[in-house]
Design a protein that fits this description.
Rossmann fold, eight-stranded mixed beta sheet, 9 helices, 18% strand, globular
Amino acid sequence: MEGSFRLKIFSIVCKLIRLNHVWQLEGEELKNEVLKKQKKITPPVIKKKLKIEEMKVGNYKTYIISPKNGSNGKLILYIHGRGYVLPITSLHWNFISWICMQTNSKIIVPFYPLVPENCVDDVMNQLLLVYKKLIENKSYSKLSFIGDSAGGDITLTFTLYLKKLGLREPDCVIAISPATSVDFDEVESEEAIKNDYILGFPALKQIGEWYSSKYGVKHWMVSSLHGDLNNLNTKVTIFSSTYDITNINANKFWIKNKDLICYHEYDKLPHIYPLFSFLPESKDARRIIKEILN
């Protein structure tokens, strides 16, 4: 795949501005940097045609985005990424706006506890609060979960968590460039580091240890790669790309669950490429996402 002119420019700019700088850090330097960045929270940047509601669930804000003329009875839970450590950005809000307008659905966007001051238990507990307050016992024609990057993995593990608790699972899960495992020992290669201009090492390995806490990086609640998708009443779709550090584990996830998931892998595209609306290469993935949700 040759790649569009916009993709080439985007990759050059990302490398010039060192977009993945934070992922090159470790130790106290990494901790201090992410704690500083966590203070810069981007409020909803939503199209004028959409309605925004804000509420507090537990100790965290949750936003509800919906069409002003009413939704069609479909509900989507969107869990943002950024490596378990960083807050939502305007890139996510733009993508959420697009989903809302394309599907006429109501979308719940929860803020959740971030690492390093929190771990997987805190994330699952907060999402469960949101689920029980806004989703459980409600009547919706279709319930979908969407997540990107770390959020992609959280959507998968939270779905498994609901199954374990005997609660309603979503009808479908869409995981975009999911970090299906926070165990990056097997993917720390020169090839992965060279090609991925959005993520990087060694931060991801340390973040994985922080996030997993007492469970360890191979626990199913931490890394969906180690979860059991059998008996799951959910249609799972994965989007991945070869210029992405998370691709190796995502590919393993697909091989392990070939009969249980739909897997779309694109060549030489960056991490979370469907969120970049300006890239012609994102159009096909967006088309598929729209079809799944409608």
